[in-house]
UniProtKB/TrEMBL annotation:
This is SDR family NAD(P)-dependent oxidoreductase. SUPFAM superfamilies: NAD(P)-binding Rossmann-fold domains. Keywords: Oxidoreductase. GO terms for molecular function: oxidoreductase activity. Residues 10-193 form the Ketoreductase domain. InterPro entries: KR_dom, NAD(P)-bd_dom_sf, SDR_fam. It comes from Corynebacterium yudongzhengii.
Amino acid sequence: MALPSPGPDTRAFITGASQGIGEALARRLAQRGHNLIVVARREEVLNKLAAELHDAHGVTVDVYPCDLAREEEVDRLIDYLDGVHVNIAINSAGIASFGPFVKQDWDYETKQFHLNATAVFRLTHALVHPMLARGEGAICNVGSAAGNIPIPNNATYVFTKAGVNTFTESLHYELRGTGVSCTLLAPGPVREDVVPDDEQTIVDKVVPDFLWTTYDSCAYETLEAMAKNRRRVVPGPLSKGMDFISTYAPTAVLSPLIGKFYSQMG
């Protein structure tokens, strides 16, 4: 099964397109000739990206600024998408928090839940039905290798990503034979190719450069996996290592170790 082909009236829909994995996927899809709908909160960043991709690749890029953590804004986005021929849907928007759950800002934690989980749930539901009616489409939801295990000091994030992981993989099997594919992207740490010294986090400093996955290589591997209708893609050596360890190592040993490391990030 190949990715749906670009067409004058089709759109690839991408949330979290203002930065990171979402932006890299938008760039990769534009290179392949897909018209886009890009979604994020920062309209000025999206407008700049849209102009750049149009000039470089001649594609149409529709900008839709939206805070996906707000129910009413997701309502409006779903209304906007009604009748639009979306043949590729990528839910990439997400945020994280670190530190003890009971000490986190509750507004931020609920925002994180609605952005990482509820919006993915609702947008997948809205877009999969017209894809099934046409017998063609490709969905990718961005979960995380962190969703494989309990991680103290990252509780809300792993709650949301564990849900996205299992939800997306379940849909993968449900959609077999329909012409609609569903792939989980479950990355570990991903970053820009070069990170200035003064912007490096503790993770950047601890992990050797050769183990990192860049946003662009992550996007490339993701689109290749979607084209093959793979259930899960884990890009890059560090992510693959994390995925393997979190799957097979004893949780009672691994979770406290990772949790201690994450407490420093908090």
